[in-house]
Amino acid sequence: MYAEKTNGCHPAGAGCSKGNTGECGFGSIKIVKWSPGQLEIQVEVKGAAPQAFGHFSFADNQGHHARILQDPKFVSCQHCQHSNLSCQANPFTSTWSFDVSQTPQQGAWFDIWIAVYWFCTVTYSASTRCTSENIHYQDYVH
After folding, report:
1. What domain of life is recorded for the organism (predicted)?
2. Residues 6 or more apart from 18 whose CB is under 8 A from it?
């Protein structure tokens, strides 16, 4: 389930430094599966469910690349500062579509970059403040 800027709210990352509600190194990508035009990704956050994704892109060593998300989107039953804990998942698995011609081929090395947001608890004006972390993942297509 994805929601974005519904009723004017959107995730806003507060970072993950000790001055915020979390620390860095809590988010990770656990599983990546490729199929033509689709990327399945499983993201985990230690101690909390992922509640939004943003700045999500990939590139491989053969010139394929795509931006999946530029602006952040709520995921996993999160809307603004409201959480439906009964359906939030950690790790959270989602599938994203992109141009089929950009699908990395078997044996290609790829990089994924994604901003992960959690502890989305307070909305100021149109922004819902969340702890956030930028994650980089590198592997090859199996």
Report:
1. Eukaryota
2. none
Query: In 3D, which of 15, 5, 86 has the Cα closest to residue 49?
Result: 86
What sign results for the dihedral spanned by CA atoms 15, 39, 85, 45?
Answer: negative
Tokens of 72: 């952040």
Cα→Cα distances 46→39, 43, 96, 123, Å:
23, 10, 23, 23
- 3-class DSSP state of 139: strand
pTM over 0.85: yes
The architecture in CATH of the region 2-140 reads Sandwich (2.60)
pLDDT tens-digit map of 52-102: 999 999 999 999 999 999 989 999 999 888 888 889 999 999 999 999 999
Least Cα distance to 118 among 42, 17, 33, 16 occurs for 16
**Which amino acid is present at 74?**
F
Task: Answer whether residue 131 shows pLDDT above 50.
Answer: yes
Using an 8 Å Cβ cutoff, are 59 and 104 in contact? Answer: no
